[in-house]
Specification:
The protein contains 7 helices and 5 strands. It has 135 residues and is α/β, with parallel strands linked by helices. α3 runs antiparallel to α4 and α5 packs across α6.
Length: 135
Amino acid sequence: MPLLVDTGVLYALADADDDWHQPVREYLTRAPDVLLVPVTVLPEVTYLLHKRLGSGAERAFVESLASGELTVEPLKPRDFTRCGELLAEYGAIGFVDASVVAIAERLGLKTLATTDRRHFSRIRPKHVESFELVP
């Protein structure tokens, strides 16, 4: 089963000075082969990489996408509907987090690789009681 990854995990993987860098690296060495990235996460990751680590880090991330190291999951029409529901129910989350939840629900994924415990620990997905947040 693929592992759904959020912005913070991908950023931490690239930034050796990030507090989450080592836990993320260690977890991903044992994780499934397929890392699934919601398409909505891509602009956040590239923005953070460019702003904090420079254009080289952003380019390396884009090259990893091009080489197939990560699998990008698009949004389906029903995901947008679910995002709207989630945004109405959880005022503290934004569209990107809502889209991660919508994709997880659609694919029946209960594990979410994220550094955002504050938001994702509060969300109650439709298909499971709560997400298993890793690392």
